[in-house]
């Protein structure tokens, strides 16, 4: 009988655990920038990308259960030809795959752990981030993820797949730097 009472009491305690408040990202107040790299030399094109929407749970110490949707058609670069090339089938094929999604499981010791879906392919990713609660109650999340594009079927001019590319070879990894602003969901 004591065991049953203890189990019931423990279950009730777990049921009344406070739920971490949900936060909504403000796409207009957030910034995402990407940087690619030539395999040889110093050429490193950069551009921007828009976040469609995002949310996560944050209890003041732990950030978890996030979902972030990226508008792949918004990828920009100063050179219009490169911008369109990034949007076509050689790279991100935004007509077929207009949205990329990062599902955050949790942040542990300053490292985000989750699943990235890009071009319909889902792979685990992890990268360092910082989370700062602002005096006004909003939360700022910053960091840089290094993504191996070839894991998501973006093989264009990768020396891992093509030989004798010379100065046309593009490194497999690119960086996505982010500075996200979020407020408690209403």
UniProtKB/TrEMBL annotation:
InterPro entries: Lipid/polyisoprenoid-bd_YceI, TTHA0802/YceI-like_sf
Leader sequence residues: 1-15
Pfam families for the chain: YceI
Keywords, comma-separated and alphabetical: Signal
Domain Lipid/polyisoprenoid-binding YceI-like positions: 22-183
Keyword Signal part of the UniProt annotation: yes
Protein name: YceI family protein
Species in which this protein is naturally found: Hymenobacter fastidiosus
